Amino acid sequence: MIVKRRWILQLLMLLASLLPLQAVAADVGPKPTMDFQFMQAFPGSAVTILGGSLYQCNQSDCRDAEPLAALGPQRFSCGPSSCHALAYGFTPYNLLEIQFSDGKTRRSNVFKTDQFQSVYKVTIRSDDLLVEPQISLNLFSPWTYLLLCVCCLAVLVVLVGAILLIVRSRKRRK
After folding, report:
1. pLDDT in tens, 90-102
2. pLDDT digits 0-9 by tens, 3-29
3. Residue 171: phi, psi to the nearest 5?
4. CATH code assigned to 33-134
């Protein structure tokens, strides 16, 4: 009887080891983004964006520039008049290199990563690009959530304190 149970247990363990393990996928939440709106500053026919790269740099002069790699959701993409970048994390300094319909490839000034969800205005000049950060009201930034949590905690502390005061004052009256 014991031999039969042991044989069944060994058979179950063998079957369990042959079953494939299920892969688990998880996302850690929102990722930082950069949005670029392009405006032409020189006279003539309007140029459109054909493609480009966002270079990531740790040094302020971008001597160590490397293009943002496309890894999973992380990527840099452009439309005719705008570009968008999503990354697991951006380096402190950045540089744009964009190909336009007039046959020119223009590079930008080195610019800093501005916010979690950054918005930039890019002025297309005759030979280069000028990137300027724009102030954006970002309702979904981590700082907004932190501020909301602190406010809720403060309201909760005030409510609990008020309830305790009311309960104590009623006990004293009795």
Report:
1. 999 999 999 999 9
2. 667 777 777 777 677 766 666 556 667
3. -65, -35
4. 2.60.40
